[in-house]
Every structure is written in C-alpha cells, then in structure tokens.
Amino acid sequence: MSSKCIRDTVNKVKAKYQESDPYRLAAAMHIIVKKLPLGTDPNCCKGFCMRECRKTCIVINCDLPEIIQQIILIHEIGHALLHQKTLHIKCFHDFELFDGVSQCEYEANCFAADYLLEDEDVLEMLNADMSFFQAAAELKVPPELLDFKFRMMKRSGVQIVDSPITSNSDFLKDIPTSGIIENY
Predict the structure, then answer these.
(1) Which of 65, 102, 110, 112 has its CA 20 to 30 A from that of 168?
(2) Quick one: pLDDT at residue 68?
C-alpha cells in the first residue's frame, strides 16, 4: 500500500469523524475496545485487532502506560482500516506480526504516525530549533513514531531533514511496559 493511500485514508477518517482521541474515534467507528491486563513482561502482548461476525474488536494491554495504550490503539485502528481482508483470516497481534520487515506493521505505523502527528506541529518543533529527540519528547511520542511521520511527510513532498534514526516496523514490541516513561 502506498504512502499516498495511507495518507488519503487518514485524511478521510479525520474529515469524517473529526476526532483526535483514539478512544472516541474507535467508538465513532463502532470498533469495540477492550482493555485487558496482559502483563508487563517485555515480551507481553501489547494489543491486537480482530474481526468476527462483522464486528471489529481491539484489545489493548491495560498494564501499559496510558500514552502508549493510545499509540497502540491508533496503530490497531490502522490495521482495522488498512487490512480489513486479512482481519477475517486471523487477528493482528505482536506475537505474529511485529517483525522488523512486516509490511502490514509498517503501514499501521505510518497510519498511526500520520494520524497522531500533524505536519504543521512537526515542522513547528523543527523550526524552533529543537532536535529530533526533543521534538519527539515535546510531541509526546516515541522517536520511532516521529521517524515514521518524517517518512510520510517526505513521501508527500514536504522538504524536511532526514531522521537521525531508521525505525523498524516492530518498534512497538520494545516499548517499555512498566514504570514511568520519560519523554513520552
């Protein structure tokens, strides 16, 4: 799926629902969101999305910090929108698909980054002479998600510096599962 297609999907969803909060967006889309304690072990499941009987359900690990739960939720909403046909076959979750080269994970990360971060906000941070990592902290997102946003912006023609990191599609599996997350 092209970056343009992902960005078009983000823009359509934003225009239709006019909702920036991932939980309210899911409710407006009639997506069932369940928060379950799935543990804090580094290899625990962070979340997954499935579709059965024409209903989409996303499960989020409630043991994660709230800001990370929101990122996981919008990532899973990305799967629900971009990978509808695959959801009928099996659910998406980090045990099976969080690998560094998964195209589906890459696309869901691009969706999440483009949905959560406005181009103007990112450019404003960079024009304020913030470093990439300072901008990520100010935007309250992991640097890896900002890297995905940079990719989306570049592919849509925005002149922006190169990201100092290159994130893998599986970066969400390594998000801290307990304790206070500084910079987010």
Answers:
(1) 65
(2) 92
State residue 27's pLDDT score: 98
The set of residues, in sequence order, having a beta carbon less than 8 Å from that of 118 and lying 6+ positions away, is none
Q: Which amino acid is at 9?
A: T
Report how far residue 183's alpha carbon sits from residue 125's, in angstroms, rounded to the nearest whole number: 15
End-to-end CA distance of the chain: 29
Q: How large is the C-alpha radius of gyration of the chain?
A: 16
pTM exceeding 0.70: yes
Q: How many CB atoms are closer than 10 A to CB 40?
A: 13
